[in-house]
C-alpha cells in the first residue's frame, strides 16, 4: 500500500540542510580564492573563483527543487512561507559569495597595502563564520522540530542566532574601517572602487546570513 | 463437499478476498515500524506473514456470523441458493473494490468492503427494508468518528510524550524515567486487546485484569531493568528513539496478529455460509467453520502480504524518513487504545481509519514534519465510497448470477 509514502511528504528540513551545506562550501571556496588573491596568485585564484560560481549554481538548483516541493498541500510544523523566505535568504548568502568571486575575476593586477588585504581576508573569515553558523542554525531547527519544540532546544537555537548577529556586527565594523583606509590612502579611483566593492559583497554575505537567522527565529515562534 | 462446484468457487473467491486483505491491510501494521527504520521491509514481510497466519488460523473465530454483524436480516432470505449467490457477489464486490483501492494506495476498511457487498446484494434481492439501517448508521458514524478520535488521542499522547521525554531539560534522564511508564501503558492496552480481539474474550474487565495489567507490569519492569543496565548514551533524542524502536517491533507484531485473528472473518464468513448450505442444506446465522477454511484464509492473507505487501513495505522503508520511533509508537499506541475504548463503549470503529487519524494527530502536534494534505483528502473520500462501491459491484454480480443460474 503505497499510501504511506504518499501520506508522509519528505521533510523540507533535510533539503534545507543540504542547501546550507552547499552554501558553506561556496563561502569556504571563496575564502581560499581570497587567500590566493592576497598572495597575488591570480591563476590559482581563478580556479577557485570559478568553482564558487559552480557551487552557487548547485545551491540554486536545490533551491528550485525545494520550492517546487514545498507546496500548500503540505501540513508542516512550521509555516510554509517562513520556510520559503528562509530558503531565499540562505540562497542569497551563496549569491553574495558569487558576487565577490565575480569581482575577483574581473581585475588582474591591484596595488593595495598589506593592511587593506588583511582587512579583506578578515572579512572573508568572518563571512565564513556567519555561513557556518547558518548551517548550524538550520540543523538545530531540525532538532527543535525533532524534540517537539522543546524549550531547551529553542534556547540553543537562540544562542546560535545571537552569534550570527554578533558576527554581522563585527563585519560591519570592519567595513567602516576599510572605507577609512581606502579613502585616506590615496588609492587610485579604480583600485578604491574595486576594493570597496569586494568589501561590500563580503559584508553582504553576513547580512544575508543574519536575515536567514531572523527567519529561523520566526519559524520557532508558535 | 469440496466437490460441490459452488463451494469450490466460493473458496477460490474467499482466497482472493484474503489475498486482497493481506495486500491492503498488512502494510498498515508494519508500516510505522518500517518507516521508522526499526525493521527492514524483508523482516516486516516475514513477521507480518507469520503473525497474520497465526492470528487467522489459531485465533480466528471458529464460529463466524455469515451475515456480518447483523447488517441485513437473514430471515428475509428464504431460498438458500440466494445466500450462495449473494455470498459470491459480496465477496467479489469487496475483493474488486479492495484491489482497486490498493492499486491507488488507499487504505480502506476491509470490514466496510464486505458490509458493502452484503448490503448490495441484500437490497437487490429484498429491497431496502432488509438492511438494518440503524446498524448501517453506526458504520457510517465510524467513518467520521474513528479518524477524529484517533487524531485527538494521538495529538494528546504525542504532546504528553514530548513533554515528559523529549522536552525536559535532561532528555536522557527523563527518557529513562518515563519510557517504562509509557511502554507499560501501551502493554496494558495490548494485553487487554489480546484477550478481546485475539482470544475473542467478552469481558473488558477480565481482559484488563488478567492480561492487560500483568502485561503492563512485566513490560514496565523489563524496560526499567534494561534501561538501568544500558542506555544508548548518544544524542538524547536518538537515545529516546532507540528505546521505542524495539517496542515498536512488538506493537506492530501485535497489530498483525490481531488483524489476522479478526479480519480473516471478512474473507471466510461468506465461504462458511456457502459451505454450510452445501453440507447441511440450510442457512444458519451462525455456522461453525472447519479449521482448514481458516487456514486457507490465513494463507491467503500471508500470500497477500508477501506478494503485494512486500513491494509496498520496501518503498515505505526507503522513502519515509520522517517517521521516528517515538512518533510511530504514538500512532500504534493511540490507535490500539482508541479501538479498545471504542469496542468497550460499543462504538463501531475502524482500525484503518483510526491509524490514519492518529498520523494526522501527531502531525498537528507539530511532530511529523510534513503530511500530504491532498492524500488525506483522497483517503477520506475513499472511505465514503467504500460501502457504496462494493455494494454496487456486488449488486450487479448478484443480479447477473440470478439471471444466469437462478
Automatic annotation (TrEMBL), chain A:
Transmembrane segments: none annotated. Signal peptide: none annotated. It comes from Pyrococcus kukulkanii. This is TIGR00153 family protein. It comes from the Archaea. Belongs to the UPF0111 family. Coiled coil: none annotated. InterPro entries: DUF47 (IPR002727), PhoU-like_sf (IPR038078), Put_Phosphate_transp_reg (IPR018445).
Automatic annotation (TrEMBL), chain B:
One of its GO terms (molecular function) is phosphate transmembrane transporter activity. The keyword Transmembrane applies. Its main location: membrane. The keyword Translocase does not apply. Keywords: Membrane, Phosphate transport, Transmembrane, Transmembrane helix, Transport. It is a multi-pass membrane protein. It is found in: Membrane. The chain crosses the membrane at residues 44-60, 81-100, 112-133, 140-158, 178-196, 208-227, 289-308, 329-346, 352-368, 380-405. InterPro entries: Phos_transporter. GO terms for cellular component: membrane. GO terms for biological process: phosphate ion transmembrane transport. Potential transporter for phosphate. Belongs to the inorganic phosphate transporter (PiT) (TC 2.A.20) family. This is Phosphate transporter.
Amino acid at each position: 500500500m503505497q499510501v504511506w509514502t504518499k501520506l508522509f511528504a519528505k521533510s523540507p528540513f533535510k533539503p534545507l540542510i543540504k542547501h546550507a551545506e552547499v552554501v558553506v562550501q561556496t563561502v569556504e571556496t571563496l575564502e581560499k580564492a581570497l587567500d590566493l588573491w592576497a598572495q597575488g596568485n591570480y591563476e590559482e585564484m581563478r580556479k577557485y573563483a570559478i568553482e564558487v560560481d559552480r557551487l552557487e549554481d548547485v545551491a540554486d538548483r536545490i533551491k528550485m527543487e525545494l520550492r517546487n516541493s514545498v507546496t500548500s498541500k503540505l501540513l508542516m510544523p512550521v509555516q510554509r512561507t517562513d520556510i520559503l523566505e528562509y530558503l531565499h535568504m540562505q540562497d542569497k548568502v551563496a549569491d553574495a559569495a558569487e558576487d565577490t568571486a565575480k569581482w575577483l575575476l574581473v581585475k588582474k593586477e591591484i596595488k593595495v597595502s598589506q593592511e587593506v588585504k588583511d582587512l579583506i581576508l578578515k572579512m572573508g573569515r568572518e563571512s565564513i563564520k556567519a555561513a557556518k553558523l547558518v548551517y548550524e542554525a538550520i540543523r538545530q531547527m531540525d532538532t527543535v522540530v525533532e524534540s517537539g519544540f522543546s524549550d531547551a532546544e529553542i534556547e540553543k537555537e537562540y544562542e546560535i542566532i545571537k552569534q550570527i548577529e554578533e558576527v554581522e556586527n563585527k563585519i560591519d565594523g570592519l567595513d567602516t574601517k576599510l572605507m577609512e583606509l581606502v579613502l585616506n590612502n590615496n588609492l587610485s579611483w579604480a583600485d578604491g572602487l574595486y576594493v570597496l566593492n569586494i568589501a561590500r559583497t563580503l559584508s553582504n554575505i553576513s547580512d544575508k546570513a543574519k536575515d536567514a537567522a531572523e527567519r529561523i527565529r520566526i519559524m520557532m515562534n508558535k | 463437499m469440496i466437490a460441490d462446484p459452488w463451494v469450490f468457487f466460493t473458496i477460490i473467491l474467499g482466497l482472493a478476498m484474503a489475498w486482497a486483505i493481506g495486500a491492503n491491510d498488512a502494510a498498515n501494521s508494519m508500516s510505522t515500524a518500517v518507516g521508522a527504520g526499526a525493521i527492514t521491509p524483508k523482516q516486516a514481510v516475514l513477521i507480518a506473514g507469520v503473525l497474520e497466519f497465526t492470528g487467522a488460523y489459531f485465533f480466528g473465530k471458529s464460529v463466524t456470523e455469515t451475515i456480518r454483524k447483523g447488517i441485513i436480516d437473514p430471515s428475509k432470505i428464504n431460498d438458500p441458493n440466494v445466500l450462495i449467490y449473494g455470498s459470491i457477489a459480496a465477496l467479489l464486490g469487496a475483493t474488486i473494490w479492495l484491489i482497486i483501492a490498493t492499486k491507488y494506495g488507499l487504505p480502506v476498511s476491509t470490514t466496510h468492503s464486505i458490509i458493502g457487498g452484503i448490503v448490495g446484494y441484500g437490497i437487490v434481492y429484498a429491497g431496502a427494508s432488509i438492511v438494518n439501517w440503524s446498524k448501517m448508521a453506526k458504520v457510517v458514524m465510524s467513518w467520521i468518528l474513528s479518524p477524529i478520535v484517533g487524531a485527538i488521542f494521538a495529538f494528546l499522547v504525542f504532546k504528553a510524550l514530548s513533554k515528559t521525554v523529549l522536552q525536559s531539560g535532561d532528555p536522557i534522564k527523563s527518557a529513562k524515567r518515563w519510557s517504562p511508564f509509557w511502554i507499560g501503558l501501551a502493554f496494558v492496552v495490548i494485553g487487554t486487546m489480546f484477550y478481546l480481539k485475539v482470544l475473542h474474550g467478552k469481558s473488558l474487565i477480565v481482559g484488563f485484569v488478567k492480561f492487560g495489567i500483568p502485561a503492563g507490569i512485566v513490560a514496565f519492569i523489563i524496560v526499567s531493568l534494561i534501561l538501568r543496565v544500558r542506555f544508548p548514551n548518544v544524542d538524547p533524542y536518538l537515545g529516546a528513539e532507540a528505546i521505542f524502536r524495539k517496542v515498536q517491533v512488538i506493537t506492530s507484531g501485535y497489530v498483525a496478529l490481531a488483524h489476522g485473528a479478526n479480519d480473516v472473518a471478512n474473507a471466510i464468513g461468506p465461504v462458511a455460509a456457502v459451505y454450510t448450505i452445501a453440507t447441511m442444506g440450510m442457512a444458519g446465522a451462525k455456522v461453525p467453520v472447519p479449521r482448514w477454511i481458516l487456514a486457507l484464509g490465513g494463507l491467503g492473507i500471508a500470500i497477500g502480504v508477501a506478494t503485494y505487501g512486500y513491494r509496498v513495505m520496501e518503498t515505505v522503508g526507503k522513502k519515509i524518513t520522517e517517521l521516528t520511533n517515538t512518533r510511530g509508537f504514538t500512532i500504534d499506541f493511540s490507535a490500539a487504545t482508541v479501538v479498545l475504548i471504542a469496542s468497550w463503549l460499543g462504538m463501531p470503529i475502524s482500525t484503518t481509519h483510526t491509524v490514519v487519524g492518529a498520523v494526522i494527530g501527531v502531525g498537528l502536534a507539530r511532530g511529523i514534519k510534513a503530511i500530504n494534505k491532498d492524500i488525506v483528502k483522497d483517503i477520506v473520500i475513499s472511505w465514503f465510497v467504500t460501502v457504496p462501491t462494493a455494494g454496487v459491484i456486488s449488486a450487479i454480480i448478484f443480479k447477473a448470477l440470478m439471471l444466469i443460474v437462478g
